[in-house]
Amino acid sequence: MKFLKRLFKIGEAEVHSAIDGMEDPIKMTEQGIRDMKEDLDKSLEALAQVKAMSIRSKNEVEQYANKAEDYNEKAMLILKKAQSGGLDSSEADRLATESLIKKEEAFAGQTRAIADKEKFDHNVSQMESNVQTIKQNISKWENELKILRSRVKVADATKTLNKQMAQLDSNGTVALLERMKEKVAQEEALAEAYGEIANSSKSVDDEIDKAINVKQTKALSELEKLKEQMGINNSNE
After folding, report:
1. Of 94, 107, 99, which is closest to residue 74 (Cα–Cα)?
2. How far is CA 140 from CA 38, 107, 173, in A?
3. 231 phi, psi to nearest 5 deg
4. Minimal CB count within 10 Å: which of 5, 23, 33, 171?
C-alpha cells in the first residue's frame, strides 16, 4: 500500500512519466506487493489486539452483571435476616444500602463495558473490512505481476527481434543476399550460354551423320552384301 500511495500522490498527468522512469517495473511491483503484505501483517496484529479488547469488554459486561445481581441478593438477605430478628434493623438498613450502592456501581461499570464493547466491535468490523481489502489487493496485484512478467518477456523478445531486423540492412546482410541472388542468376545465364555455344559448334558432318544414321545404314549395306555372298534371295523371305 505504501508503494501505491506514493504513486497516487503523483499528479495524474505525471503518472505515466513516473512509470516510464522505472528501471525495472517487475521489481517495483514486487516491492509494492511486499509493502502491502507488511501492511497486512500490521493490520492483522492490530485487529487481534482490538478483538482482545472487545472480548475483555464482553467479559466485563458479564462480570458487572453478576456483581449487580450478587449485591442485590445480599441486600435482600440482609433485610430478611433483620426481619427475622437475626440482625439489628438499623445495621441491616445500613448494610443493605451499601449493597445497593455497590449494585448501582456494578450497573454503571456494566454500562461502560457495554459502550466499550460496542465501540470495539465497530472497530473490529472496520478493520476486518480493511484487512479483506488488503488481501484482495494483494491477490489482484500478484495476478497482475504474473501477467506483467509474461508481457515483459514477450516485449523483450519482440524488441530483440525487431532490433535485429532493423539492423539487418545496416550490417549489409540484405545487400549481401541481393548480391548473392544476382551472382546465381549470372551463373545460370552463363551456363545456358555455354550450352548454346556447344550446340552451335557441332560440325556439318555430325549433323549429316545424325540425319541419316550412318551406323544403321552401313549395317544394312553389310547385310545385303552378306546375303549375296551366301546366295540368299530376298524374294524368298
Report:
1. 99
2. 16, 49, 47
3. 70, 30
4. 23
The DSSP-derived string for 35-67 is HHHHHHHHHHHHHHHHHHHHHHHHHHHHHHHHH
pTM of the model: 0.53
Neighbours of 65 (CB within 10 A): 16
C-alpha cell at 7: 504513486
Q: How far apart, in whole angstroms, are the C-alpha atoms of residue 109 and residue 68?
A: 10
As a whole number of angstroms, the distance between CA 199 and CA 209 comes to 15
Cell of 197: 555455344
**Tens digit of pLDDT at every position of the chain (237 positions):** 555 455 454 444 444 555 555 557 788 888 888 999 999 999 999 999 999 999 999 999 999 999 999 999 999 999 999 999 888 999 999 999 999 999 999 999 999 999 999 999 999 999 999 999 999 999 998 998 888 888 888 888 888 878 777 765 555 666 777 788 888 888 888 888 777 776 665 556 666 666 666 667 777 778 778 778 887 766 544
